[in-house]
């Protein structure tokens, strides 16, 4: 079955972040001041599976581009010979690994964007100050909150529907939270226009909307991811880093008249994507899914069972892998605004380098694996048939020879 067209890659664009998305940049040169012990481990590979018995060291005092949680998560994947090394040695080894996703040119871009954020946060006066710190009971519906706090596979599954494999839908946000976030975004856009600031758009495909991290919501949304998305992702998406989410890119998109109308067929620069409709009144804008694919198969054909259209409902979330190909149909009337949280795992992105295939989650890799298994079974049957046929011929020849000898013996 043919695709709607080639799947694009929806990246952050000028915002920076994990520069090469799911790819890998060449390793950087040795950094000045690097501990001598770090060089001895430079050619070691990370463990594919984390050492759950190892207790990571404390990195809360470390300042830089990455949160302390990133180093704690990555340390469990270090080579066994490195686990007992000095913290500085481990820290520089991990920084070398992480720097492969953040080349020098991209670091400069990120530094400029960081200054842009600091300027906005310093000057912008929030409309709803209560949004800037986490208030779970005010933000989330009681059913969602209870399921996540119970934190069992059964409790989480109890609030979910899975209309198609890998896509989960559930009621999540309080109506008042949706209204306040919409008002905050509108207030920020008006302020940016009045101040004649340049507004950074969410990504390379959306031309309207705003990056929530840019005007002070980053800390709250990081807690949002760590406490309310990561427990779900750990259950449903462990094979794509759902249990090691350590960074995010959060934004609001706008669809309707004088806004983006639709969104082309694409994959996200994320391991797990949360998409929640905030409102307002609208028609159309369905989210269509067309199968999960790795980079090698991103433009392969869609199978009939992979096709699904999801209709947005304010306050209701849809959760899916970033590599689940999708797009948005035209919003035919009204204004639709959605909150998106791209959740990322630096550990998973490093682990991908060591994998030859992705049959645990890529639909096309799975299909190719099944085809190889079918061919293997056919080949085995053919060999067995050949052996059995050869044995039967050999047995018949022996019987004939025995019968001939018996005949000559008596006559």
From TrEMBL:
One of its GO terms (molecular function) is iron ion binding. Keywords: Dioxygenase, Iron, Metal-binding, Oxidoreductase, Vitamin C. Coiled coil: none annotated. Pfam families: OGFOD2-like (PF25238). This is Fe2OG dioxygenase domain-containing protein. Residues 1-59 are annotated as: Disordered. Residues 246-345 form the Fe2OG dioxygenase domain. Its cofactor is L-ascorbate. Gene3D superfamilies: q2cbj1_9rhob like domain. It comes from the Eukaryota. Residues 1-13, 42-59 have a biased composition (Basic and acidic residues).
């Amino acid at each position: 079955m043919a695709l709607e067209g080639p799947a694009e890659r929806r990246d952050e664009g000028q915002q920076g972040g994990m520069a090469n998305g799911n790819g890998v940049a060449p390793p950087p040169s040795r950094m000045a001041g690097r501990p001598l012990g770090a060089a001895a481990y430079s050619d070691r590979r990370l463990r594919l599976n984390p050492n759950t018995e190892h207790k990571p060291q404390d990195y809360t005092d470390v300042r830089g581009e990455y949160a302390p949680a990133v180093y704690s998560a990555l340390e469990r994947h270090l080579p066994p010979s490195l686990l007992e090394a000095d913290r500085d040695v481990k820290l520089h080894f991990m920084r070398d690994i992480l720097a492969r996703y953040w080349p020098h040119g991209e670091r400069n871009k990120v530094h400029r964007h960081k200054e842009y954020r600091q300027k906005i946060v310093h000057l912008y006066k929030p409309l709803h100050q209560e949004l800037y710190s986490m208030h779970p009971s005010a933000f989330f519906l009681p059913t969602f909150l209870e399921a996540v706090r119970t934190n069992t596979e059964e409790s989480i599954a109890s609030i979910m529907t899975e209309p198609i494999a890998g896509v989960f839908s559930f009621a999540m946000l309080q109506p008042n939270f949706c209204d306040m976030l919409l008002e905050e975004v509108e207030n920020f856009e008006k302020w940016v226009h009045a101040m004649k600031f340049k507004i950074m758009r969410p990504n390379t495909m959306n031309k309207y909307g705003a990056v929530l991290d840019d005007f002070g919501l980053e800390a709250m949304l990081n807690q949002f991811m760590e406490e309310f998305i990561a427990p779900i992702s750990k259950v449903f998406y462990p094979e794509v880093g759902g249990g090691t989410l350590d960074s995010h890119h959060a934004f609001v998109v706008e669809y309707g008249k004088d806004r983006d109308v639709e969104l082309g067929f694409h994959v996200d620069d994320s391991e797990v994507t949360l998409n929640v409709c905030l409102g307002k009144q609208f028609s159309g804008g369905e989210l269509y899914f067309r199968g999960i694919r790795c980079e090698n198969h991103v433009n392969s054909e869609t199978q009939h069972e992979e096709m699904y259209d999801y209709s947005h409902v304010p306050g209701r979330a849809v959760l899916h892998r970033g590599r689940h190909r999708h797009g948005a149909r035209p919003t035919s009337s009204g204004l639709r605004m959605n909150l998106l949280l791209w959740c990322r795992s630096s550990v998973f992105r490093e682990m991908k380098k060591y994998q030859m295939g992705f049959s645990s989650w890529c639909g096309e890799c799975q299909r190719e694996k099944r085809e190889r298994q079918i061919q293997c079974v056919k080949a085995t049957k053919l060999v067995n048939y050949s052996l059995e046929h050869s044995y039967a011929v050999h047995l018949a020849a022996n019987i004939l020879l025995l019968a001939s000898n018996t005949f000559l013996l008596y006559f």
